[in-house]
Design a protein that fits this description.
The chain contains 15 helices and five strands. The chain is mainly α. Helix 5 packs parallel to helix 7 (148-170), helix 6 (134-143) packs parallel to helix 8 (179-197) and helix 10 (216-228) packs antiparallel against helix 13. It holds the Pfam family AAA_assoc_2.
Length: 329
């Protein structure tokens, strides 16, 4: 199921089916795509059934699960991070797509089937709709940053545009896809990919890096971009609270108070009135002195814990609470 098109009723129907099949020894897996589209109250529907083993839940999300998922549900699941594809992976995907689109790749050896079941059609230059050279494919695989969707969108846009122009001019669709065609399509493909996946964390990262570098104009630009994307102002302010401790910290302890007050202000008055609050806080953080000493020290302590061999040290006797302290706590 997809959380974008499913509701609580669909989950209840799946629970009923799973319970009926469990009577015959069958196990059920519920795969929920875009699980972050369910709010945290809706996600409670999974809890009792995950605990009792009615079904195995597999959720898929492009958002940070620590923020988008119910903590109770997240604690009962295991998080797997899917890493970016390598350049060779994307090149393989592009070659498969070109074969399916009746295209021809020049200066590249014909790929052999992975197994006997896989049959790959080989097209000659004469009956192909378009041709593309190996260097262009390699360039596209390098610039898509491990995102096959961006690469495929760019390829498709370039092929459609070039074959359409060729058909209008000469009446046939045998066209040559150049590097310039791909460059132009990549710009459009990135926009399409961002709209489809709704990954605003790239703009948050740009805002964070601009504040860290002390660039006021860049910081305000990315702040305006985030607000234009209709992001929750409280979430924006929450990121500023994090920046105030991570990058400014003890160099200006007042920065944390400014960021926290901004978050409460955004919560009280909302958009569009709170835009000035976010802008003011952003500029304050840009101008404030920077220090990452607390952040680095905390990471060093975490590293010691993770690299500890054997059991973790016990609390020394002289540092433990006595009975009166325990009652007070």
């Amino acid at each position: 199921m997809s959380a974008a098109s499913s509701g609580i009723k669909d989950v209840k129907d799946a629970v009923t089916v799973a319970k009926n099949k469990s009577q015959f020894g069958c196990k059920t897996i519920v795969f929920m795509d875009k699980i972050h589209r369910f709010n945290k109250l809706q996600q409670d529907i999974f809890l009792p059934h995950v605990e009792t083993g009615t079904f195995t839940l597999i959720g898929c999300t492009t958002e940070n699960p620590s923020y988008s998922l119910n903590p109770a549900l997240l604690s009962r699941c295991r998080v797997f991070v899917l890493n970016k594809l390598t350049e060779s992976n994307v090149t393989e995907i592009l070659q498969r797509a070109i074969e399916r689109m009746n295209g021809n790749v020049s200066n590249v050896q014909e790929r052999k089937p992975i197994n006997d079941k896989e049959q790959i059609k080989s097209y000659s230059t004469l009956n192909s709709k378009f041709s593309i050279d190996n260097k262009t494919i390699q360039w596209l695989a390098e610039v898509c940053d491990g995102d096959a969707r961006v690469a495929l969108n760019a390829l498709e846009l370039a092929v459609l545009a070039r074959t359409s122009d060729r058909l209008k001019v000469s009446g046939n669709t045998n066209a040559t896809i150049t590097l310039e065609d791909i460059r132009e399509s990549v710009k459009k493909a990135h926009v399409l990919s961002e709209e489809e996946t709704d990954q605003s964390h790239h703009m948050y990262s740009a805002l964070h890096n601009s504040i860290r570098a002390g660039e006021a104009n860049a910081s305000l630009y990315w702040m305006a971009r985030i607000m234009a994307a209709k992001e929750d102002p409280v979430n924006i302010a929450r990121r500023l609270v994090r920046i105030s401790s991570e990058d400014i910290g003890l160099a200006d302890p007042d920065a944390l108070g400014v960021a926290v007050h901004t978050m409460y202000g955004c919560q009280m008055i909302g958009m569009p009135e709170c835009d000035v609050l976010l802008g003011q806080c952003t500029i304050y953080l840009v101008k404030a002195p920077k220090s990452r000493s607390v952040y680095n020290a905390l990471k060093a302590a975490e590293k010691v814990i993770l690299e500890q061999k054997g059991l973790q040290p016990v609390v020394p006797a002289h540092m433990r609470c006595n009975s009166s302290e325990a009652k007070f706590q």
